[in-house]
Amino acid sequence: MSGTVTDPTPTNPTPTPTDELVVSGLSVHYGGVRAVSSVSFTVGPGQCVGIIGANGAGKTSTLKALMGLVPRTAERIQFGDHDLTRVKARDVVRHGIGYVPEGRHVFPGLTVEKNLLLGAYVRAWKGETRSTLGEVFELFPVLGEMRHRLAGALSGGQQQMLAVGRALMSKPRLILLDEPSMGLSPKLIEDILAVLQRLSAAGHALLLVEQNAKLTFEATRTCLVMENGEVAMTGTSAELRDDPRVRQIYLGL
């Protein structure tokens, strides 16, 4: 990803003050096992909120639950004016939420451009869609250079760019990102940080799940610490970064 991120503001989502994600009492069960228990938090426009914790803490299950990808119950899942508590997964994106899954999950047998256009499936095909494609290529020039190459031929960092770009194609106001730095070199992780900061500055709300503590604390202002499916601690990223309990128990530092 090095040398491939440029400065243009990406796909400005023109948020409104009401574009806030409000989650209350979110729980996830897999059979008889409760993976997430009564989690509550908010993410406002232009905010980047992090979720950290050990493996198995319930971080990924929380994101999947918000997208409707796993069985869930909740007192409230509200984004802007929309109640998403019972909205099916295929319709969540229509309400302005993008998703960058763990492991990227690009379509290896399709070209870069076709992968990106699939991200715009909720939008009517028109000149604006082509304009958004151009904005993604401005943000990630290497994707424009490789637009006709199969996604399976891209490096891990390039596939991560593709996954983020695909999410941007629906012009989301909120983006959920699951482990975007996984498997990347330190230099590429710095590039991911720059992208997250640019998206937040452009008005996107971001909810970031990350094992990389340094990236999380630099990209976010607020963090939740999850343990055994519950929110064990909340606070500013600066406070949690220096908290000895977080460093020892949750981050192994």
From TrEMBL:
Q: Which GO terms describe its molecular function?
A: ATP binding; ATP hydrolysis activity; branched-chain amino acid transmembrane transporter activity
- SMART domains of this UniProt entry? AAA
InterPro entries, A to Z: AAA+_ATPase, ABC_transporter-like_ATP-bd, ABC_transporter-like_CS, BCAA_Transport_ATP-bd_LivF, P-loop_NTPase
The organism's place on the tree of life at top rank: Bacteria
Domain ABC transporter as annotated: residue spans: 21-253
Which keywords does UniProt give here?
Amino-acid transport, ATP-binding, Nucleotide-binding, Transport
Q: Which PROSITE patterns match?
A: ABC_TRANSPORTER_1 (PS00211), ABC_TRANSPORTER_2 (PS50893)
Q: Which residues form a coiled coil?
A: none
Kindly state a single biological-process term from the GO annotations of this entry.
Answer: L-amino acid transport
Family designation: Belongs to the ABC transporter superfamily.
Q: What is this protein called?
A: ABC transporter domain-containing protein
| Organism this protein belongs to | Actinophytocola xanthii
Mind giving the lineage of the organism this protein is from? Bacteria, Bacillati, Actinomycetota, Actinomycetes, Pseudonocardiales
